[in-house]
Amino acid sequence: MEEENIKSIYFEMRAGVGGEEAALFARDLWKMYSRFFEKKNYKVKILDISETDLGGIKTLIAEINGTDVYRLLKYEGGVHRVQRVPITEKSGRIHTSTASVAIIPKIESIPINLRESDLEFEFFRAGGPGGQNVNKVETAVRVIHKPTGTVVSCQMERSQQRNREIALELLKNKLWEMEQQKISGTITEERKRQIGSQERSEKIRTYNFPQNRITDHRLNKSWHNLENIMNGDLEVILRAFQK
Questions:
Q1: pTM for this prediction
Q2: Which domains does the chain have, with CATH numbers?
Q3: I need a labelling partner for 187 at 20 to 30 A (CA). Which of 5, 127, 176, 195 fits?
Q4: What is the DSSP string of 75-141?
């Protein structure tokens, strides 16, 4: 499928190395992307989110819809690294933490048949918005694809059935992406690029707050308007990948 025809993606984010600061950095990254989505008039639907007590993001899955969304964001997948003094730091020391992003194109009518015997379902109480029904009933769904170990979840819909449908749709897209990459012989490199082991060394971009600098290590290029970029002005970086 041509990239310009892909108008929906699944956006995944996970806090990596760095404990609470990594989760707070993931929250700040999500704010950055959210502001960019708003500027582009993209439609955002959070499917699953897990947060820390301080409001950091441990994991997040969202569906993003809009013109050129995949073409613009496909290079955002990978490990993002931050260097700054955390709000939890008492002595003013600079810490290094990471968060990972994965961009998965959403393909309609995927020719993948999921066997019930390959799936393991877990149901739990959702922790996100939704009122009493969400909090008191086990509407949230987690699906484990046993042959590959792939795990997906959805908790933002009010009904268990709808969360189940969305989770299975996401699982199909993940498996389809893996299959296509395997065919092209790039699955190992691609998944490492997108997620890696979340170690500090496996990075695509560094956000250095003390030096007001963002460096993309694939382009070997830096920008010094960090505050503007963190406020959603991502075009300056995204345009560099379109050349």
A1: 0.81
A2: 3-108+187-242 (3.30.70.1660), 116-184 (3.30.160.20)
A3: 5
A4: GG-EEEEEEE--TT-SS---EEEEEEEEEEE--SS---PPPGGGEEEEEE---SSS-HHHHHS--EE
